[in-house]
Each structure stands twice: as structure tokens, then as C-alpha cells.
Write a structure and sequence with these properties.
This protein has 275 residues and is an alpha/beta fold. It is 42% helix and 21% strand. It has a 7-stranded mixed β-sheet, with helices on both faces. Strands 6-9-8 form a 3-stranded antiparallel β-sheet, with helices on one face. Helix 2 links the parallel strand 1 and strand 2. The longest helix is centred in the first third of the chain and has 25 residues.
Amino acid sequence: MHNQPEVHYVLGHAQAELQRLIRQSAFYAELTEDVFRSAGISEGMRVLDVGCGAGDVSFLAARLVGPSGRVIGVDRSPEALAMARRRAETEQVRHVRFIEGDLAQLELPESFDALVGRFVLMYFADTSGALQRMVRHVRAGGIIAFQEMDISAARSVPDLLLYKKCGEWIMATFERAKVDVQMGPKLSRTFRQAGLPEPHMKLSARIDGGPEWSGCEYVADIVASLLPMMERLGVATAAEVQIETLAGRLKEEAKNGDGILISPALVGAWTRKPV
């Protein structure tokens, strides 16, 4: 039996956090779609999305596989799954289904053409062991495609102090909560340790400048979700963060500094299960 439990999802599953995940998914959607297309996910496939949250990656996969395909999203949060199901019903996406399950002990009665996940492995204590168990649900020759972050790669040019400070708060909170902030660059090793062939990999990030860059809201969103844990772990106080004005101050800093803001790097990795 697996002895190292899944790391707790430190951002929680409150409605505000689920809405933040939806905004984050829109922020990164193009980069994730690029990885999935490169991996070969296409029309008619059966796809398993692990750690599906509010359903955005599942909906992206559903668009790629079309009505002749099928997507199952799995998550352990009833709150996230309830929102995902409501969204599927509202948008009339009939070929997506969401089920509750513990990813560390997942048992499903069918096999899939592809296994996908985004920002999932970073929360596991034993990433290669978790991936190895998930891969059991993929048919021989099927696709395994994951996208994870390298949070440490976020930066600005020139160096903008508030943006840098936000990155330090986020990094410190995740690290103290035992979340792997550099999971992205470790995907190759993780795949190999899980018994998979060396993956193809792709590095990408959002980059833009000026006061209208949506990355300012993205950063403020994450800080807002992490703030209670920041305070509990002694990383920063609400008075230091001043969350109500943080997004505006980030925009003002970018404008005054004529800065370019670079998001955390996203690393995509994909391979096929040996036949």
C-alpha cells in the first residue's frame, strides 16, 4: 500500500478559490491546449483528467476529442465536482463526466486512450508512485500528458519589487506547505521513475507588460487565496499584503517601471505507455 499520502491542496475548495481556478485556467488555456495537441490528443479519444477541479482541463480535452470522444474528470473535492457538473450542464457538454475519487488510490473499471493532468503532481509526496498508479488506467500505447509549474521562474524586467515580493510570499507558503514549486522541471525524471519512456517536453510562459496585463489580477488572486495560510505559517500578515489594493499596486508598478512581467514557467511533458 502507498505509505506517503497526497499533499493537502493548500488553496482549499471554497467558492472563491474555485472561481479563481476558472480564471487561472483561462489565463493558461492556450499553453495547455498546445501541450495536449502536441501530445496527440485528438477526436474520438477517451481521456482521463486527474485532479480536474472545477473542470477546465476536462472541458479543454472535450473540445479536442469532440462528441465522438469521452472525458472523465476525477477529483476528491465534492465542492469542485459540483461546480464542474453545473458548468457541464449549463454548457451542454454531454461527453464529459465527473466522478469523486482519491487519486492516490484510484480504481476505475475501464482503460483510456490518454491520461492528462495540470498542476496536480506538485501536490503529491511521491510523484512517481502516484503517476505509476494512474498510468494503470491507460491502454498500451496510450498518451500520458502532464503540465506542471516552475514557480521560481516568475520574474520581471526590470526587477519590480512588489511583483518580486508577491513571488516570494507565494513560494514560501507553498514550500512550507510541502508543495513542490519546481515540479515542472522534474517531470522527465518523474516519468522515467514511473517506468515510462523519456517524455517530450515543452517550456512556456505568459509574458506581457503595461498596466492592463491580466497577470496582475492573476498574481493578486493567488495571494488572496493563500493569505490565510500565509498568516498561519508566518510568511506574511494581512497588513503587509494589503490584498484589497494589491492588483492595482502591481499594475501601477508595471506602468511606472515600464516593466515586462513573466509568469511562472509551465512545463509540459508527454509520452506513450509502452506496448
